[in-house]
Amino acid sequence: MEPSILTGTCCARCAQAADAERRRLERDLHDGAQQRLVALAIQLQLVGMRLAPGSEAEPLLAEAQEQLTASLAELRELAHGLHPSVLTSHGLGAAVDSLAGRAPVPVQIAVDAAGELPEPVELAAYFVVAESLTNVAKYASASSARVRVSRTRRWLLVEVADDGGGGADPATGSGLRGLRERVAALGGDLDVSSPAGAGTVVRASIPCGPVRTAPAAAAPLPLPAAA
Known about the structure:
- This protein folds into 2 domains: about 5-80; about 85-205, 2-Layer Sandwich (Heat Shock Protein 90).
- About 55% of the residues lie in helices and about 15% in strands.
- The chain has helices at about 5-50, 55-80, 85-90, 90-100, 120-140, 175-185; strands at about 105-110, 145-150, 155-160, 190-195, 200-205.
- The protein starts with a helix and ends in a 20-residue tail after the last strand.
């Protein structure tokens, strides 16, 4: 086996191992800390029902409930970032819709990725869109963005563009640099075009293998000739 092929295989295995670890952490957060916080919220509600109206403890209880609600939201966001459940349950198109729905600017979406995709490829595509839209919200000063996901015979193509101020530099940000490493681990490539004053375009090309189709039905056997 050639060294380049061997290196690519090892990188892909490392990416798969990292994704499996993210799923484990997400399950641990959901089954552990998140469930305990939910139980605590129920207990605080029961305490509130036993307080006399106008009690001095009411403001303290209300503040504790607000802090608990914020902590739950932060924990769920953390778990979501580790491994997006919508991607597992509803697929890449729905996951991209969910990301666009949380963006602070209108996002035009076009997703055409028919056929089953390997899980590491779906995750990489999801995080390309997620990180790019996060950068749009934080830095771009954009009024709109667009996301395009398409599939050729062997490649998944992801493009996220905005009409902001441009000037993004992957060398100075850990987010884009991390995306490039994730895509490269799968044998793909990520390019960022961001001239000053002309918006930013993030393009990722990720190998995904041929489209899987159902096997063709066998042709019916000819009827036997009449005697």
